[in-house]
Amino acid sequence: MSKRPPVIISCALTGAGDTRSRNPAVPATPREIADQAIDAARAGASVVHIHVRDPETAKSSTKFAYYEEVVQRIRDSSCDVLINLTTGPGTMLTVPTDPPFRVEPIADAELMTPQERVAHVVKLKPDICSLDVATMNFGEAAFVNTAQHLREMAAQIAQAGVTMELEVFDFGHARLASHLIGIGAIPSSAYFQLCLSIPWGAPATPTVVAEMQRLLPAGAKWSAFGIGPEQFPMVATAAILGGHVRVGLEDNLYVSPGKLARDNAELVAKAARIIEDLGYEVATTDHARNTLLGA
């Protein structure tokens, strides 16, 4: 076996996109999300990344009661998986091509203040929460996270005692996150999630991962994922380059070409096999807790 540290698997359970219509296995109700979190942990995930959805429509939601129910169900189980709540919703907007050029939230979404975006994190105090370090074209929409908003959100997250996972989608985002750590606006305990092959961010290639890693602070902890068909190649790439990995139905609906995944646990199990076939060890939750939280 390789002497590299064990590889932490994170599982992104459901996301915010209209994906349940393309794979009915995508969880939507709080119970479905919590049950798939527990099953993913049994398959080898140490961290579960959580969005919530409206149980009736399966569309993205930011309702506190849904977050609360998912978190409580996981905590009431015997599963000790690390809970990672998103702070991403409330940032997508469109800009008309004809005047007046007033930005508007995308359909089924509302722009949210920094305080609103972290309110559920402050109340529920998960182990981890995401912090998107990205202002960019995101498909046909704009994804907006200004430095001022990031500083305000980071201050509240830190005060709540929650570890930050910094989502970076391109090289400049890695530089900005490193700068915010350097000036003390984000704690040095934060770790990085390299989000690759998302339109229109950095592509999922070994060269890109290596260069993004070079831009991170010395000794920074990091993980990476690719979306769609890039998911499992990126598991191997990140593991080989010394990072951790993320899989899940938020990012990819297929377990193999043309075959829909039956649940998140199936994706986690495949990632675990790839890691072990490379001669590496899949991290336990205790190891992940010590590595990411310093606990």
From TrEMBL:
<dbReference type="Pfam" id="PF05853">
    <property type="entry name" value="BKACE"/>
</dbReference>
<keyword id="KW-0862">Zinc</keyword>
<dbReference type="InterPro" id="IPR008567">
    <property type="entry name" value="BKACE"/>
</dbReference>
<keyword id="KW-0479">Metal-binding</keyword>
<dbReference type="InterPro" id="IPR013785">
    <property type="entry name" value="Aldolase_TIM"/>
</dbReference>
<protein>
    <submittedName>
        <fullName>3-keto-5-aminohexanoate cleavage protein</fullName>
    </submittedName>
</protein>
<keyword id="KW-0808">Transferase</keyword>
